[in-house]
Amino acid sequence: MEYEAVIGLETHVQLKTKSKMWCSCANAFGAPPNTNVCPVCLGMPGVLPVANAEALRLTVLTGFLLNCEIPRYAKFDRKNYFYPDSAKNYQVTQYDRPSTREGFLEFEFEGTIQRVRITRAHLEEDVGKNTHFERHSGVDFNRAGVPLLEIVSEPDLTSADQAHAYLNALTELLAKAGISDCDMEKGMVRCDVNVSVRPKGTTTLGAKIEIKNMNSFSGVRRALDFEIPRQIEAVSKGEKLRQETRRWDDLAGITAPMRSKEDAHDYRYFPDPDLLPFTPTEEWIAAIRATVPELPLARKQRLMRDFGLPAGDAEVLKSNDALADFFEKAAGGFRNPKAIANWIINNLSAQLAASGTSLADVRFSPAQLRELVELVDSGKISSRIAQEVFVDLFSTGESPSAIVERKGLAQVSDTGAIEKICDDVIAANPGPAADFRAGKVAALNFLKGQVMKLSKGKANPAVAGEILERKLQS
């Protein structure tokens, strides 16, 4: 019997706010342990939380990015459990009335557009961090109370590679919109995986296995590559899988049992009595909707549609908003946008990397880059000379035309001058000349290269090619 995997992901993302969710403590990574804490985030008796307005805004903005419904009534609940990293013995979260629900995310996978339904993106607080040493353990509560968005997908994913692509698309979207820095090394993104298997073609879900301890997206992929075959092998032998939580051991490359999987009633959810329900106004929601940026996939598709760029170029540009903006300003209304994309992706990116600068430091404008491409397209300079001009353009910001004029780099199209150079090249290279006459077409390119070398790149290559071919065939 053939089996298929059914995968749903719970992605926890720390929001990009200056302070924590319920207090004014700094939301900052890297501070000494237990220094960004106060009675509120430590859950001391008698304290009252106050919701972070920016976290509420970022949550609703995420809802729009994920095509979610934004309810006009949401509330906060207490999820009760005991664990050392939770000073309160409960976590403030959203249970049955979240701030966003029923959306979807579209992303590219294996050449097609995939859609994964989003159950909800609800707001909660992060907990502390346990650190285990050889003979003792410690808890750092600096992270406790940091605004955390839990994005829950429907079980619409079917493979480890597809799950990996979904996570990359999701975090790219959130980072570009300023929701989170999505730095996994700093714990800003964490992921739990829910996976089951079932006979292919059936609709009944199998026993849901949750995998925790994911510290990278490659770890998610590796964990699924182990867990899916493990489950298939078990059910193929007639074993009955039960709902449970397993942990991923990245060093060993295996999942191992942790505990039986909890149900909602195990956490005894109830509305937090210290927090009022959240009832956003229509005006507030409309103001957030107006700030929704263009989604990365939509931008890629538009670059391909409006500028005729190939998928590879559009992918590079949509991954860097600054470069994409620069391209659109340079290529708007221009007849050769592909050439401008080439200069940005290859030359400009290389110069930025080599100089250790950013696009904000560039001395020339998009219009000046377009001017350089126009000089090449019109035949005023060769592509080789354009490379030299670009180096000057990057370092000085002087207009390409002025650089060409100042350095005497204008392309020579005078047939008389080029004919003399061609005669010299043919005389100096009898072997390649004979090869071309014998039918070896590639020899012409060598001879043309010699013309360009002798003219210091100034000869019009098209004219040079025509003259060489005529002389060699006569």
Write a compact overview of the structure shown:
The strands form 3 sheets. This protein has an 8-stranded mixed sheet with strand order 4-5-8-1-9-10-11-12. The protein has helices at residues 53-65, 160-176, 217-236, 282-289, 296-307, 311-318, 321-331, 337-355, 366-377, 383-396, 400-407, 415-428, 430-437, 442-454, 461-473; strands spanning 3-14, 77-80, 90-93, 101-109, 112-125, 129-132, 137-140, 147-153, 189-199, 209-214, 244-249, 254-260, 270-271.
Proportion of residues in helical segments: 40-55%
Number of helices: 15
Largest sheet: 8 strands, mixed
**Overall average pLDDT:** 91
Oligomer: single chain
Low-confidence stretches: none
Which outline best applies?
elongated
For the record, the count of structural domains works out to 2
Radius of gyration, CA atoms, in whole angstroms: 31 Å
Computed structural class: alpha+beta
Task: Please report which band the strand proportion falls in: under 5%, 5-15%, 15-25%, 25-35%, 35-45% or over 45%.
Answer: 15-25%
Distance between the termini: 74 Å
Tell me the total number of β-strands. 13
Cross-sheet strand order for the largest sheet? 4-5-8-1-9-10-11-12
Reading the helices and strands in chain order gives EHEEEEEEEHEEHEEEHHHHHHHHHHHH
